[in-house]
Amino acid sequence: MTADSSGQIAIDDSWRETTVSIVRVNTEAKCNSDAQSLPISKKKAAVNLSTVSDKVVLSYLKKTYDKTEKEPDVTIEGLVKDTDYSVTYSNNVNAGTATVTIVGMNDYVGTLYQYFTIEPAKMTGVSVHGYKGTYDESSHTITLDGVPEGAVVTYASEESGIYSEMKPDRRSAGTTTVYYKIKKQIMKN
After folding, report:
1. In which region does residue 17 sit, left (phi positive, over 0), alpha (psi from -120 to 50) or beta (all else)?
2. Sign of the CA dihedral 27, 31, 33, 34?
3. Which three-class secondary structure state does DSSP give residue 114?
4. What pLDDT sits at residue 37?
5. What is the DSSP code string of 16-70?
6. pLDDT score for 183
7. What is the spatial distance between Cα 118 and Cα 95, in angstroms, rounded to a whole number?
8. What pLDDT does residue 138 have?
9. C-beta of residue 177 within 8 angstroms of C-beta of residue 166
10. Which of residues 127 and 1 earns the better pLDDT score?
11. Which of 24, 53, 148, 171 has the fewest Cβ atoms within 10 angstroms?
């Protein structure tokens, strides 16, 4: 097999079963005007909210129960609410622990949870009366006026003692201190 100066190949009879590959390189190559460009996205990679969890601030961490929803303002340094994150609330009416759920949007992904406390309301309008008088061999205890309907009153002879619904009484001369707690059951929404 031979090739002449024009690139023509001559094959003689002895090479009949030979495979020939010819590669021609054009040294005068020009740019192909049909070339296509690949689009490159300018979108930033998503950032997980956990990277900014230390920058979350609630406008308050405690509120007192008053039958209304509690929704502290949520700010995250460097981010914009309703653009970078959304906020929802749960268990945010009755006394206890309320939850703030923060969900990433657009360039932010992930979910953060923050918590705040709704404290029980102080009961007002309750007055306490004890026996004051001369020893008369009778049993005496305290009386509570203004206790809301449906409330449960418990008593103890020590502030950190065990409370029960049975009132302590005194049958002998002397002084007895009685501690009490009033709990009103709150209907859950």
Report:
1. alpha
2. positive
3. strand
4. 55
5. TT---------TT----TT--PPP---PPPPEEGGGGGGGEEES-SEEE--SS--
6. 81
7. 5
8. 85
9. no
10. 127
11. 24
| Distance (Å, whole) CA 53 – CA 115 | 13
Note the pLDDT tens digit of each residue in 13-25: 544 444 444 555 5
Beta-strand runs (E) in 94-187 = 96-104, 108-109, 111-119, 127-129, 143-145, 151-156, 179-184
**Pick from 11, 31, 29, 12: which is nearest to 20 by CA?**
11
Asked if 158 and 181 touch (Cβ cutoff 8 Å), the reply is no
Tokens 């306490």 appear where? 128
Tell whether the model's pLDDT for residue 45 goes beyond 70.
yes
- Report the alpha-carbon distance of residue 174 to residue 106 in Å, rounded: 73
Whether the CA torsion 78, 81, 86, 87 is positive or negative: it is positive
**What's residue 121's pLDDT?**
83
> In terms of DSSP bridges, do strands 85-90 and 143-145 run parallel, antiparallel, or are they unpaired?
unpaired
Identify the DSSP state of 5: T
